[in-house]
Amino acid sequence: MLSGWQAPQLGHFPPETRSGEGRSSAWDAPTAPAFAGAPGFGGVSDNRTFFTALPQARAEPAYSQPPEHRAFPLGVARGQVANTYIVAEAEDGLILVDQHAAHERLVLERMKAAAANGGVRSQALLLPEVVELDEPACDRLESRLAELAGFGLELERFGPAAMLVRATPALLGHGDVHGLVRDLADELAAFEQTLSLKERLDQVAATMACHGSVRAGRALSVAEMNALLREMEVTPHSGQCNHGRPTWVKLAKSDLEKLFGRK
Questions:
Q1: Looking at the predicted structure, is the pLDDT value of residue 148 above 80?
Q2: Which terminus of the chain has fewer Cβ atoms in its 10 Å neighbourhood, N or C?
Q3: Can you give the pTM of this predicted structure?
Q4: Which candidate, 209, 178, 203, places its Cα nearest to that of 111?
């Protein structure tokens, strides 16, 4: 053996930590500097101040367990049929929800509540849009500009046969601006001039709500479906859409058993 020869010092590799049954990953960065004299790394010093233990942690699953369907009257979403109907499981049966009809009612109730409490908040368009109409329709809209602004719709006359849309109700999101303005113009044609839009709140809000609701044919995530169900449970009149049709139907367990000849 050569006199005075010493084995080279090894570099600092962090000790393995365990997380449940798995080993620590490459993301577990070392917390102690690579001191040659640190204990356990080939040095002679036993100064513990050079070593700091790695924090212990465990990975959580990337998903959470779905809520128990017994906790909610309209159950928990299990899927979607034809991108139109939500299928939910309740404690005592199966719930089918028409997503467009249900959301239309929710938007209507939100708009009515906002209109009754100081007005509907508007959302300015990045680029104002020009909606072409006949002159009488433009006249009707122009005569109601201040009232429509109370519903969050900001319009200006733009020549004899067009309206300029500067802002839309924030509750409606990014809907069909042209369709909304045309429908409102048609709606106003049926109003008596002596009646205010506040007195026709249901009709105006219902027309707007139709343009701000989730459409049939749109795929929804499970989270979106469950959020819709939860809001329906606490919203008045959510069992009927704005046109009086049901927003959801229920198949009791006994009905399902009869369908399959179990009873």
A1: yes
A2: N
A3: 0.68
A4: 209
